[in-house]
Design the sequence.
């Protein structure tokens, strides 16, 4: 009996990176996307500033920021007693490169399929 994965191509390192999974999971939430949008200004923001205009508590915002920080999307620095959060574009650039790779792979697969169908 063959293993169900035996007919599949081996996964590339970039396709199986846990970092990609963390990034997609972190950005898969509307609240976290909104926080990233606010932080894209380039200026560090405190939790109080990020809570302004939101119906969420400081604790809820903090939990979302921790998820973003774990994925590397935001950086936290201390300024006295206050935590300041700032956007880190590097993981998003890496995600963009990964999605470009996946797109090229799909284009190649579709091209092969088209050639096969036209023969």
Sequence:
């Amino acid at each position: 009996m063959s293993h169900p994965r035996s007919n599949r191509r081996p996964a590339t390192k970039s396709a199986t990176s846990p970092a990609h999974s963390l990034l997609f999971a972190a950005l898969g939430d509307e609240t976290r996307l909104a926080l990233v949008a606010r932080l894209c200004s380039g200026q560090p923001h405190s939790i109080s500033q990020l809570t302004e205009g939101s119906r969420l508590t400081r604790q809820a915002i903090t939990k979302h920021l921790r998820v973003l920080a774990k994925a590397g999307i935001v950086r936290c620095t201390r300024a006295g007693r206050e935590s300041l959060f700032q956007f880190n574009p590097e993981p998003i650039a890496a995600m963009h490169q990964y999605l470009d790779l996946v797109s090229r792979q799909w284009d190649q697969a579709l091209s092969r399929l088209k050639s096969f169908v036209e023969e």
Notes: The longest helix spans residues 90-118. The beta strands are 45-46, 74-79, 82-87. The chain has one domain: 18-112.
